[in-house]
Design brief:
heterodimer; A: about 130 residues; alpha+beta; Heat Shock Protein 90; five-stranded antiparallel sheet; about 30% strand; globular; B: about 90 residues; alpha/beta; Transcription Regulator spoIIAA; two-stranded parallel ribbon; 3 helices
Chain lengths: ~130, ~90
């Protein structure tokens, strides 16, 4: 299944719809669904807010495929190179007073996916996430 | 009480509401997340930012009665201390 998103924050509200569509084909447990929702929301937010600052309209393609025992989500965008795996992990054990305000979104992408790969191909960012069906 | 997905848009709205309460000199703000089934990093950042601001002036901002999904996300990100003790979701 493939879906297209415009580079606008209002588009983020469509993520539950595409997960509903996937869920009709393959029932998703609540943990799998939450993980996909979190990872897609955070990654698309980063693309829309950081990757598309030039004001030009960009398209983001999200492909959801069943890859038993996993669901595979592939996100392709034509923004500037952006590899979330290059960012240092955040220390989640720090007390609330010392936690950094940044880096949380990327941490949430990393912790939600069971497997995450990034590549740059034909001037596009391609992030592939796999999440086990639970 | 927050209803619905605490994504970027609702996080902005929550921030406005918290700022209104702070302006009215609220001593304690409790954000009830029983009816919200999703929180993104922007939502967590708003909670953290105003938790700190309130704490620095000896006031309180905490989350109460998180839904199972919110509880799970706050656990994963290391933010379960934002939840009022005893009001955690039992899942």
């Amino acid at each position: 299944m493939e879906f297209e998103f415009q580079s606008h924050p209002a588009e983020l509200a469509r993520i539950p719809e595409i997960l509903d569509a996937l869920g009709r084909r393959q029932p998703l447990g609540p943990k799998t669904r939450l993980a996909l929702d979190t990872a897609l929301t955070e990654h698309l937010t980063n693309i829309i807010t950081h990757g598309c600052r030039d004001g030009a309209p960009h398209r983001i393609r999200v492909r959801l495929t069943l890859d038993p025992p996993c669901v595979k989500a592939t996100v392709i965008d034509d923004g500037p190179p952006f590899n979330p795996l290059e960012h240092p992990p955040v220390d989640t054990s720090l007390p609330l007073d010392q936690k950094p305000l940044g880096g949380l979104g990327i941490h949430m992408i990393r912790s939600s996916a069971d497997e995450l790969t990034y590549r740059r191909e034909n001037d596009r960012n391609i992030l592939v996430m796999r999440k086990r069906l639970a | 009480m927050v209803e619905g997905r605490l994504d970027g848009a609702l996080a902005n709205q929550l921030e406005v509401e918290i700022l209104n309460l702070i302006r009215e000199n609220a001593q304690q703000i409790y954000v009830n997340l029983a009816n919200s089934d999703f929180i993104c990093s922007a939502g967590i950042r708003v909670l953290l930012q105003y938790y700190r601001q309130m704490k620095n002036s000896n006031k309180v901002l905490l989350v109460t009665r998180p839904s199972a999904a919110i509880q799970s996300t706050l656990d994963m990100t290391g933010f379960k201390n934002l939840i009022v003790e005893g009001s955690e979701s039992k899942t």
